[in-house]
């Protein structure tokens, strides 16, 4: 018998699970449709994005639309009935959605990353089982990171073998998407210290998800504490995630490129808001000699600079997606390292432009842009919060070691 020592005093604050979709999700047919569907959804999601942020309204209907649209299965292999779009397309989809609402864009990140991992490490039977779930519209959340560990990759959550199932115990935080997920992949260690994805049913006894995410940014990513108290996970849903990092694979770069896409989307949203505000609400400065704010030469120069830097980040994002495609098709030390390096470059530029654009918004739009009624600070708050994932100061180190000394990046989910 397994005796749990997990602290369950907060279990009364649990959020109940949501029902599985009544109808099968749509299946995207190709890359062009994926982009078109993302643009259509983004046009809807942006309408109430400010209100959702201000009042911390969960995007329940929007998330159902998103996952039922087929965009949550776009990296399921064709051999299993999926569209298997390019990772350049997948990144563009997340960028488009994130420009409308970056919290919604982030919610899909770990789901898509786990789908990629299943392709890499699972056997054919497990792939068939889990990909069928994804194609039906089942959403994976995540229970990966832990709050009190020394490093992000240090896990105290463990599982034990109990015949046809495993028993998992631990506690997680930063669990984006877990509140409204149907299945929750839990990173847990086996007796040898190897990390697996133990994919538990969201309503499994002992699995408690608490709505206690209190960050000032990315406020509706449906994150929070996950308590795992003797949770049973069938062996069919125990995925050997560690195999994605004990040899060169694109798994780490895939998790990373989705982070990059979210930040690029935030930058796009901030620049769009700046242009709209300057064109409709800002006043020309008294010494400018012009009648309209949009004719201010310094504002013109700044918008040109921001847009140029955004386009550079977008170009690297696309290049990274194509490099990941090559690494997925032919995973060698060289193709994987190239994908990691280009993705790291994109991460640096996307972080820099997201912070710059969300900050410059107020300088160019003027004092009235800070009024609460506009809630424009949400873009800076989102950028500042989300770019803290995978700090760019370490990306510079990875790039320098690679280009100067030929040292390949480490193999893990943060590289």
TrEMBL record:
InterPro entries from the UniProt entry: Acyl-CoA_DH_C (IPR013107), Acyl-CoA_Oxase/DH_mid-dom_sf (IPR046373), AcylCo_DH-like_C (IPR036250), AcylCoA_DH/ox_N (IPR013786), AcylCoA_DH/ox_N_sf (IPR037069), AcylCoA_DH/oxidase_NM_dom_sf (IPR009100), S04_starv_induced_SfnB (IPR023922)
Pfam families: Acyl-CoA_dh_2 (PF08028), Acyl-CoA_dh_N (PF02771)
Entry-linked Gene3D superfamilies: Acyl-CoA dehydrogenase/oxidase, N-terminal domain (1.10.540.10), Butyryl-CoA Dehydrogenase, subunit A, domain 2 (2.40.110.10), Butyryl-CoA Dehydrogenase, subunit A, domain 3 (1.20.140.10)
E.C. numbers: 1.-.-.-
GO molecular function: oxidoreductase activity
Source domain of life: Bacteria
Keyword annotations of the record: Oxidoreductase
Domain Acyl-CoA dehydrogenase C-terminal: 258-390
Residue span(s) of domain Acyl-CoA dehydrogenase/oxidase N-terminal: 37-137
Protein name per the record: SfnB family sulfur acquisition oxidoreductase
């Amino acid at each position: 018998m397994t005796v749990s020592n997990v602290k369950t005093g907060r279990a009364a604050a649990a959020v109940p699970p949501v029902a599985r979709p009544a109808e099968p999700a749509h299946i995207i047919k190709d890359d062009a449709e994926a982009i078109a569907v993302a643009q259509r959804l983004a046009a809807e999601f942006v309408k109430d994005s400010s209100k959702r942020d201000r009042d911390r309204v969960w995007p329940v209907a929007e998330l159902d639309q998103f996952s039922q649209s087929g965009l949550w299965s776009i990296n399921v292999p064709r051999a299993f009935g999926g569209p298997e779009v390019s990772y350049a397309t997948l990144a563009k989809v997340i960028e488009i959605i994130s420009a409308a609402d970056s919290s919604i864009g982030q919610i899909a990140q770990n789901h898509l990353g786990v789908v990629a991992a299943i392709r890499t490490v699972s056997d054919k039977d497990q792939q068939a089982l889990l990909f069928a779930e994804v194609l039906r519209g089942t959403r994976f959340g995540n229970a990966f990171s832990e709050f009190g560990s020394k490093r992000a990759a240090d896990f105290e959550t463990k599982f034990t073998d109990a015949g046809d199932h495993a028993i998992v115990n631990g506690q997680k935080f930063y669990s984006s998407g877990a509140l409204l997920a149907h299945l929750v992949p839990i990173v847990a260690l086996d007796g040898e210290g190897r990390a697996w994805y133990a994919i538990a049913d969201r309503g499994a006894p002992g699995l408690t998800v608490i709505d206690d995410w209190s960050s000032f940014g990315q406020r509706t990513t449906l994150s929070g504490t996950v308590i795992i108290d003797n949770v049973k996970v069938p062996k069919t849903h125990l995925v050997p995630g560690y195999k994605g990092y004990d040899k060169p694979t694109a798994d780490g770069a895939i998790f990373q490129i989705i982070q990059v896409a979210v930040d690029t989307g935030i930058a796009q949203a901030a620049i769009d808001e700046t242009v709209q505000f300057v064109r409709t609400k800002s006043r020309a400065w008294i010494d400018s000699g012009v009648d309209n704010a949009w004719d201010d030469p310094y504002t013109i120069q700044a918008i040109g600079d921001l847009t140029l830097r955004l386009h550079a980040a977008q170009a690297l994002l696309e290049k990274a997606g194509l490099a990941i495609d090559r690494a997925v098709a032919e995973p060698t030390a060289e193709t994987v390292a190239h994908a990691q390096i280009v993705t790291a470059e994109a991460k640096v530029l996307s972080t820099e432009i997201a912070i710059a654009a969300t900050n410059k918004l107020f300088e160019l739009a003027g004092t009235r842009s800070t009024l609460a009624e506009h809630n424009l600070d949400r873009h800076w708050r989102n950028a500042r919060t989300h770019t803290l994932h995978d700090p760019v100061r370490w990306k510079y180190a990875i790039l320098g070691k690679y280009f100067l000394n030929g040292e390949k990046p480490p193999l893990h989910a943060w590289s």
